[in-house]
Amino acid sequence: MDTHDLLPVGVVANRSGFAASALRYYESQGLIHAHRNSGGQRRFERSVLRRLAFIRAASNVGLTLDEIRAELGRLPENRTPTKADWQRITTHWRGRLDEQIAALEKLRDGLDACIGCGCLSLKRCAISNPYDAAAADQGAPGAAYLPPLLRRPHKPA
Questions:
Q1: What pTM was estimated for this model as a whole?
Q2: HSE value, Cβ hemisphere, 13 Å, CA-based, for 122
Q3: 21 SS3 class
Q4: Domain range spanning residue 77?
Q5: Final residue of a domain: which of 45, 73, 91?
Q6: What DSSP state is assigned to residue 6?
């Protein structure tokens, strides 16, 4: 491999929009791979930019790191993904996006009256919580009446 084709961390961070610390984290998680030069500094193949763009898109769709890792495992590492590769991988994203859109529309449509938290602070709420019934639902942290897709724990990608 020609070392001129390898990019230093700063260049990859700048071009990808990810912080250098995120690049190190993604490398530790096996999502991207780096080579080390004689001084021990990380150098990335240019193709890592494509993988990082994929990670960004997958994160925006709502995939977890484990799901992103599995999806990246389906991508070829030694060649540029083809249109067919991308279509095969992202086909199920459509359903996930449709679920997110529906959940956000439900939130938007009820936002003036309630945000789905299950509190008792509003006399008139689109999502009723008589006698603080939400308190009994210990298995639903956060806004108990939001669609489940919008109340899952947030884990940065």
A1: 0.66
A2: 16
A3: helix
A4: 3-91
A5: 91
A6: E
